[in-house]
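#help-structures

NK: newbie question. if I give both the sequence and a SMILES, will the prediction place the ligand too? trying with flavin mononucleotide
OV: yes, paste both and it writes out the complex. here, I ran yours:
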Amino acid sequence: MPRALRCGILAPFPGDSFVTRSMGRPGGWRPRCVRMPPGAGAAKNQQGAQTETMTRVLVVYYSQTGQLHRILQALVAPLEAADGVEVDYQPLAPQRPWPFPWTLLRFLDVFPECVYQDPPPLQPLSADADRGYDLVVLGYTVWFLSPAPPVTAFLQSAEGRRLLRDTPVVTVVACRNMWLSAQAAVQEHLAAAGARLSDHVSFVDQGSSLATFFTTPRWMFTGRKDRWLGVFPRAGVAESEITERAPRLGRALAEAVAAGRVDGCAPVLDGLGAVHVDEGLIASERIGMRSFRIWGRLVRRAGPPGSAARKPVLAVYLVFLVLMIATVVPVTLVLRRLLQPLLAPRLRRMRAELEAPSGSARHRLEETQR
Ligand SMILES: Cc1cc2nc3c(=O)[nH]c(=O)nc-3n(C[C@H](O)[C@H](O)[C@H](O)COP(=O)(O)O)c2cc1C
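OV: that's the protein plus ligand as structure tokens.
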């Protein structure tokens, strides 16, 4: 095998989060798999006898503009409508919320803490960590290739870990289009908490990578999501994804819950196109994450978040970012085209691993087309 393939941007190496830790095995880690009947969650954390048979579902999420919240509501609606299922929502609220729309400086200033997953203080959770849930739906967005900070704070907190322990989890990501590193980080936290990943569902912004490169930042910096200049689509996840695809996946989840099949031992949303990994973004995420780590370290050394001392470093970083996008991105695109025949089998394998556990296959779609 050519050295470029063994040691280059696509080769696993120790310490690389989303290749070695998550991609090493299809489906990532799978801790002890204990099948639990519906209602077992309520009993598992409480002292004394507990006879309830309701299936308890907790939906944990952080959504700044409300987009992810809408997606989760659409996905969870069939569960809420089902008999014997009780759904609680746990929005995560940072004690010091970020502004929306963002200013460029605030946006850049937040990146080192995102990449190094510094947990911001959260407002107290309303969910009772000792209540016990049979299923957790964990919704997150991606900030600088990492789970949004309130979600990393939840995943690292003692209360969050108690809620997740021994519990099947369905992760739902909604972002521009780059969620691979973030999902690897989420999976690591879930493993540390002793949770079991049942399924993963992805929603990405509509339009090509090139289009969202403009539409997503425009939305973040101006708050505007409308069609733009007659060529760019609306920003964010397409309406049909929210009003059709999310409920379809939700119906399948509700059926699996009713059948007592959601145990974190095997996916229940397979064959439904729950995720899609764009092979073209695998290398870009790795390059981006490496540069974020290096620059994040430099910015953190310059001063704490919001400090004046950070500003010059952030200004240099911005210039670097623009130059990198103008040079490295086109070069990578050309290289990818040239190396396509050599890379294709490896990329296909990586894609299948990254799409686990639910996968991108769509052979069960007809079942849920109602
Ligand atoms: C600070 C910041 C950084 C972001 N970084 C990424 C990113 O690295 N990859 C990505 O696909 N989306 C990124 N996004 C887009 C978000 O994942 C998400 O789509 C958007 O914030 C809307 O989500 P919400 O309003 O439901 O919270 C970023 C958004 C923000 C605010």
